[in-house]
């Protein structure tokens, strides 16, 4: 008779998250309003893009991440998954790229916050001009970011409350108001700015420029993998997880579609601006409803939402990189923490990177151009991570076929290969399109645009390769509790098949006991 491991028992007893709660967690992790104007330009055809990206990207990411998170639940996330499949070098590159991707994302998110603050004045014409002032945007971006860093230095308790209520005030409530106002405008019989005929639903694929810019919609759904680690806290994850993901995917798609259409109802596609149009839509709709005085308040709410997100993300990836550094992958300098346990040196370097990227706003033709190039750089890096994640999931079914996985992608091995293969292909396609300058936006010289993307991407890959090549044994913190990879503990190579059928927590427990005995 087979005995159940302590880990297996814990997994069954930990079911404390309901399906509905888990679905909401995933919606909150993914939904952001700042990207809606980019898709509002497509009018009704944006519905097609949202549904297409959900089926070929959102669902594969969610299902594959769940299998990886339950099969290898120790600290590390994508570092752990890629390392289990391909070894520590690619794992470290993945962790470093995740850190850099967030650094690149900060200026784009903060640009939206700066534009929101520009629109709190009474004169919309002046506000619009202020939001295009590169020096105003740069000053606000740097001020908010370094304030968020200062808060992060104070520790987790300093920003938990701000993160929670900032998300509600700055994302959920504005989304509901946007949709209610937009569709009230539509049902009132007022003249809308898009054609809602069925012929407009399917995009014009003969227009290559539309396909290029629309590829960015894949990154609208990025982040669903963040909560995959909590799959083990669901009762009956095999049934509950797909149900929760289905609800979350449907809710996310509905919010994106209705929010995008609400903007398209009010603003002509020719007038859509990536950084301003969301605020302009709120102003126009509030004015139409006779509630114009509420528009500046909404701008403040959106800025609060940005601040809350930034404060949360400033500390998140830096903490992950700190754990990996202590495991021996970075010099001791990068492992320095303050009395609150925050990675001070990593946070400071992160701030320098963000500041450097933000200053590019001054040299590019416009705030909108800077916003677009940084958004596409973030997309290139994030899509690289997703391709590694899908590849790891496929390879681990070969290299560790018997490793217990409390949740498995439906359809057995073929089901995983199909779903992960679809996700990899979608990520690769979007990755390739990300290097093509969008014709709708003046980004200056296309050569400079592409050179910046390629050069920075190669630089961010080269840095962790160099660090890994020169790593030293004394870099590892003797107090680090970062678990080794299962193939390391079991004395095999990640490139070879390992038929071990022990759950990774049990493997880790055995290793820790052996280490304790040796000590």
Provide a descriptive summary of the structure in words:
The chain crosses the membrane at residues 14-35, 47-69, 90-115, 135-153, 165-187, 207-224, 245-268, 288-316, 346-367, 373-396, 416-436, 448-470. 68% of the residues lie in helices and 0% in strands. By secondary structure, it is mainly α. The chain has one domain (22-482): Amino acid/polyamine transporter I, CATH 1.20.1740.10. The protein has 19 helices and no strands.
Concise description?
This protein is an all-alpha fold and 519 residues long.
Primary descriptors:
single chain; 519 residues; mainly alpha; Amino acid/polyamine transporter I; 0% strand; transmembrane helix
Overall pLDDT, averaged?
82
Q: What profile does the largest beta sheet have?
A: none
What value does the Rg take, in angstroms? 23 Å
Which fold name fills CATH's third level, the topology? Amino acid/polyamine transporter I
Strand fraction? under 5%
- The CATH superfamily appears as Amino acid/polyamine transporter I
CATH architecture: Up-down Bundle
Cα distance, first to last residue? Answer: 34 Å
- Which runs of at least 5 residues are low in confidence (pLDDT < 50)? 1-15
Note the total helix count: 19
Count of discrete domains: 1
SSE string, helix = H, strand = E? HHHHHHHHHHHHHHHHHHH
Total DSSP E strands: 0
CATH class: Mainly Alpha
Q: Give the fraction of residues assigned to helices.
A: 55-70%
Class computed from helices, strands and strand pairing: mainly alpha
Protein name: Amino acid transporter
Keywords: Cell membrane, Membrane, Transmembrane, Transmembrane helix, Transport
Organism: Enterovibrio coralii
Membrane topology: Multi-pass membrane protein
């Amino acid at each position: 008779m087979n005995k159940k491991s302590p880990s297996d028992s814990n997994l069954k007893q930990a079911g404390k998250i309901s399906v509905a709660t888990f679905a909401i967690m995933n919606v909150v992790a993914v939904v952001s309003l700042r990207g809606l104007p980019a898709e509002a330009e497509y009018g009704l055809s944006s519905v097609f893009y949202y549904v297409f990206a959900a089926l070929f990207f959102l669902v594969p990411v969610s299902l594959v991440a769940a299998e990886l998170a339950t099969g290898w639940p120790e600290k590390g996330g994508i570092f752990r998954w890629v390392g289990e499949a391909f070894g520590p070098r690619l794992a470290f590159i993945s962790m470093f790229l995740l850190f850099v991707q967030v650094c690149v994302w900060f200026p784009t998110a903060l640009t939206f916050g700066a534009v929101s603050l520009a629109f709190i004045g009474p004169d919309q014409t002046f506000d619009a001009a202020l939001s295009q002032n590169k020096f105003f945007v740069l000053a606000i971006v740097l001020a908010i970011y370094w304030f968020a860093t200062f808060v992060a230095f104070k520790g987790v308790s300093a920003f938990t409350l701000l993160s929670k209520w900032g998300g509600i005030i700055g994302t959920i409530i504005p989304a509901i108001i946007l949709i209610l106002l937009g569709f009230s405008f539509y049902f009132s019989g007022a003249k809308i700015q898009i054609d809602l005929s069925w012929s407009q639903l399917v995009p014009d694929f003969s227009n290559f420029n539309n396909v290029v810019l629309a590829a960015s919609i894949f990154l609208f759904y990025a982040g669903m993998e963040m909560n995959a680690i909590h799959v083990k806290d669901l009762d009956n994850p095999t049934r509950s997880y797909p149900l929760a993901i289905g609800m979350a995917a449907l809710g996310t798609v509905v919010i994106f579609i209705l929010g995008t259409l609400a903007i398209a109802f009010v603003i002509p596609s020719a007038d859509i601006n990536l950084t301003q149009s969301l605020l302009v839509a709120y102003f126009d709709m509030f004015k139409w409803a006779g509630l114009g005085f509420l528009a500046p308040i909404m701008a403040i709410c959106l800025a609060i939402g940005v601040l809350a997100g930034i404060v949360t993300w400033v500390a998140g990836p830096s903490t992950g990189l700190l754990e990996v550094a202590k495991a021996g992958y970075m010099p001791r300098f990068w492992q320095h923490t303050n009395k609150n346990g925050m990675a001070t040196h990593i946070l400071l370097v992160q701030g320098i990177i963000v500041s450097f990227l933000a200053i590019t706003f001054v040299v590019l033709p416009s705030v909108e151009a800077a916003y677009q190039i940084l958004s596409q750089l973030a997309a290139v890096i994030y899509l690289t991570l997703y391709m590694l994640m899908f590849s790891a999931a496929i390879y681990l079914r070969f290299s560790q076929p018997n490793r217990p996985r409390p949740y498995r992608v439906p359809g057995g091995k073929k089901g995983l290969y199909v779903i992960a293969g679809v996700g990899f292909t979608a990520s690769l396609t979007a990755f390739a399109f990300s290097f093509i300058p969008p014709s709708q936006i003046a980004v200056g010289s296309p050569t400079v645009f592409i050179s910046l993307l390629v050069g920075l991407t190669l630089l961010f890959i080269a840095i962790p390769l160099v660090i890994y090549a020169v790593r030293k044994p004394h870099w590892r913190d003797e107090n680090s509790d970062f678990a080794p990879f299962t193939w390391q503990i079991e004395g095999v190579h990640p490139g070879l098949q390992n038929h071990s059928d022990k759950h990774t927590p049990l493997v880790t427990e055995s290793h820790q006991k052996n280490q304790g005995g040796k000590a």
